[in-house]
Amino acid sequence: MNKKGYIRTLEAVIALVIIFTAIIFLLPKNKLPDGKAPHELENTANEILKAIQQNSDFRNGVLSINAVIVNDKISSTLPSFTPWTYAFTICEENEMDTCNNNYFGKEFNADGIQKDEFTSTLPSKDIYTKSVFLSKEDITDDEILEENPENIIIRIYFWEK
Question: To 5 degrees, how large is the angle CA 85–CA 91–CA 92?
């Protein structure tokens, strides 16, 4: 019997196993998307939400559901070179799930668009959302809005251009 052929075959199989093991452990793995917003977008979105909470003009624009003021403030807060575009909606707390208010944003007309049209125009990309809950009473502002007794939620959507 010729045992040298079996040993060489076994050596080749062991060599292949070692090579494939080295390839699996040494090559970089593709990072799976984790659903988190990119760091620069997270910082920008947090800055916008902080401005909504602390800037009385911005806050009053949200509480009175004045989309023009809110859109101008968001546009001025976003850097001009940003690769992100946005849309937002402002709803009362008790109707957030059934809210039919228009969606406003950088690429929409001044009247905004309806919810159905908004969802159909969204790109097939990652869309990140941030929202903030505002109560009517602002202890930093002397003048409290009387015409809107409800609590307000503003939700901002960001996606890559």
Answer: 155
Give how far the C-alpha of residue 130 lies from the chain's centroid of Cα atoms, to the nearest Å. 6
- Which residues touch 92 (CB under 8 Å, ≥6 apart)? 99, 150, 151, 152, 153
Could you tell me if 34 and 118 are in contact, meaning their C-beta atoms sit under 8 angstroms apart? no
Tally of CB atoms within 10 A around 83: 11
Distance (Å) of CA 22 to CA 14, 26, 29, 81, 140:
12, 6, 13, 43, 62
Interval 39-82: pLDDT, tens: 888 888 898 888 888 888 888 888 887 888 888 888 888 888 88
Name the more confident of 158 and 114. 158
How far apart, in whole angstroms, are the C-alpha atoms of residue 43 and residue 160? Answer: 15
CA-CA distance, 71 to 54, in Å (whole number)? 16
